[in-house]
Automatic annotation (TrEMBL):
Gene3D superfamilies in UniProt: RNA polymerase, Rpb5, N-terminal domain, RPB5-like RNA polymerase subunit
KW Oxidoreductase (keyword) present: no
Gene that this sequence comes from: RPAB1
Keyword Transcription among UniProt keywords: yes
An MF annotation (GO) of this entry: DNA binding
Pfam families associated with the record: RNA_pol_Rpb5_C
Keyword terms: Transcription
Originating species: Hepatospora eriocheir
InterPro entries associated with the record: Arch_Rpo5/euc_Rpb5, RNA_pol_Rpb5_N_sf, RNA_pol_subH/Rpb5_C, RPB5-like_sf
Cellular component annotations (GO), alphabetically ordered: RNA polymerase I complex; RNA polymerase II, core complex; RNA polymerase III complex
Descriptive protein name: RPAB1
C-alpha cells in the first residue's frame, strides 16, 4: 500500500512539475500524463529505478534540472553529490522533489552554494495538484524589470513600500520567484471588475 501511494504521488508530482516549468516559460522534455496507467507505460519501474524520472529543461540561457528523490531523508553527503553533479553539468537551477523536509545541515549547505546554483525543494505532498488551478487562487505573474520600474515611478514609491508576499508561499515557490521580485495579482470580482495588486517577495 505504501509503494502504491508513493507511485501515485510520483505520477501527480510529475504532472505538476511539468506544468510549473511551462508556466515559467520553459519547454520541458517531459510531458504530463492523463492517467496513471499512461504514466506507468513509460515509468513502470520508477520505484526501483528513480533516476529515470530526472530530466532537464531549458529557457533561453537557463538550464533547470529536476531531480526526484525517493529516500525517506536525503543525507547531506547525497545532497552534495546531487548538487555538484548538476553544477558540473552547467545547470543554473535545480528542483529537488522529496518525501520529507531537509535537515538543518542540508539547508545550510544549499545556502552556501546559492552563488553557483539556485536550488528549490518541494515535497511530493506539495505537488499533488497545481495550486494555480484552484478556483479561489487569482492569477499571479512575476513582473519584469521594466514593468517594476514603471510601477514604482507611477506610484512614487520603492520596493520597500510595497506589501509583501513571503518567499515560502506556495504560489511564490511555484512561480520560482526570488527575493525582491515583484508579483502582480489579478483578481476578478463578482461584478466582473478586475483589480490588480502588487506584492514584493521577502523572506519574512
Amino acid at each position: 500500500m505504501i509503494e502504491k501511494d508513493l507511485y501515485s504521488k510520483i505520477y501527480l508530482a510529475n504532472n505538476t512539475i511539468v506544468e510549473m516549468l511551462i508556466d515559467r516559460g520553459y519547454n520541458p522534455t517531459r510531458t504530463t500524463y492523463d492517467t496513471i496507467e499512461d504514466f506507468g507505460l513509460e515509468f513502470r519501474n520508477v520505484l526501483t529505478e528513480p533516476r529515470s524520472l530526472n530530466f532537464v529543461s531549458k529557457k533561453d540561457q537557463l538550464t533547470t534540472a529536476v531531480y526526484f528523490s525517493l529516500e525517506e531523508k536525503i543525507p547531506k553527503s547525497t545532497l552534495e553529490g546531487i548538487v555538484q553533479n548538476n553544477i558540473n553539468d552547467g545547470c543554473n537551477n535545480l528542483i529537488i522533489i522529496m518525501q520529507n523536509k531537509l535537515n538543518h545541515a542540508c539547508v545550510s549547505y544549499l545556502n552556501s552554494v546559492r552563488a553557483n546554483i539556485f536550488v528549490e525543494g518541494f515535497l511530493f505532498n506539495e505537488l499533488l495538484f497545481n495550486p494555480t488551478k484552484h478556483e479561489l487562487v487569482p492569477h499571479h505573474k512575476i513582473m519584469n524589470q521594466l514593468e517594476i520600474t514603471e510601477l514604482l515611478k507611477k506610484h512614487s514609491c520603492t520596493l520597500e513600500n510595497l506589501p509583501k508576499i513571503l518567499s515560502t508561499d506556495i504560489i511564490t515557490r511555484y512561480l520560482g520567484a526570488k527575493v525582491n521580485d515583484v508579483i502582480s495579482i489579478q483578481r476578478q470580482s463578482k461584478t466582473a471588475k478586475t483589480s490588480i495588486y502588487y506584492r514584493v517577495v521577502k523572506n519574512s
